[in-house]
Write a structure and sequence with these properties.
By secondary structure, this protein is α+β, with helices and mostly antiparallel strands. The chain has a single domain, classed as Aspartate Aminotransferase, domain 1 (Alpha-Beta Complex). It contains five helices and five strands, in the order ααααβββββα. A five-stranded antiparallel sheet has the order 1-2-3-4-5. A hairpin with a 2-residue loop joins strand 1 and strand 2. The longest helix has 17 residues. The N and C termini lie far apart (81 Å).
Length: 171
């Protein structure tokens, strides 16, 4: 005769507020889980996948300039103004950098590798925009240097500093 292991009967325990654990799990199913990606991050990853597909020839061939201009046009308020000005500064002062999108953001590349990018404040609901530089940027300065800069507005002083950084980064 075969022995059968006896399992204890499952009971449903109540959580605070009177809901069962199962009901609590179901109610959280559609909400953001801590530690997961935000909707904005998932959207950026999907945009990057589309960019990679277009680069590999699996999709419509991307026109970097028009893609960047379309992303800038979709930005609102100060993000739009700063991105428009940044685009003009980079084109005028680092013509060796070619415009393209990167994770759905305006970016500028040399030899197919992103050197710098503009992340609007609205992209991830931040309080400031970011001018960022990749590891391909030639900004090395000793053992430690900045690779991103917060932007709240573009004055003549910021423009001068950006031009210096972009020229150095393009190397």
């Amino acid at each position: 005769m075969r022995e059968v292991a006896m399992r204890p009967k499952k009971t449903t325990k109540k959580t605070t507020g009177g809901a069962t654990k199962k009901a609590a799990k179901k109610s959280l199913a559609g909400k953001e889980k801590s530690g997961g990606f935000t909707a904005e991050e998932r959207a950026a990853m999907k945009e990057r996948a589309r960019e990679l597909k277009a680069e590999s020839g699996g999709g419509a061939k991307a026109d970097g300039e028009s893609d960047v201009l379309a992303k800038i046009a979709a930005m609102k308020g100060t993000d739009n103004a700063m991105a428009t000005r940044l685009h003009a500064l980079i084109k005028a002062n680092a013509p060796e950098l070619s415009p393209r999108t990167w994770y759905g953001m305006p970016a500028y590349a040399k030899d197919g590798k992103v050197v710098c990018f503009f992340q609007s404040a609205g992209k991830f609901k931040a309080r400031y925009a970011t001018l960022g530089f990749s590891d391909k940027a030639k900004l090395d300065d000793g053992a430690m240097w900045s690779t991103s800069f917060a932007l709240k507005e573009m004055t003549a002083a910021e423009e001068k500093r950006i031009v210096t950084l972009v020229k150095k980064a393009a190397g």
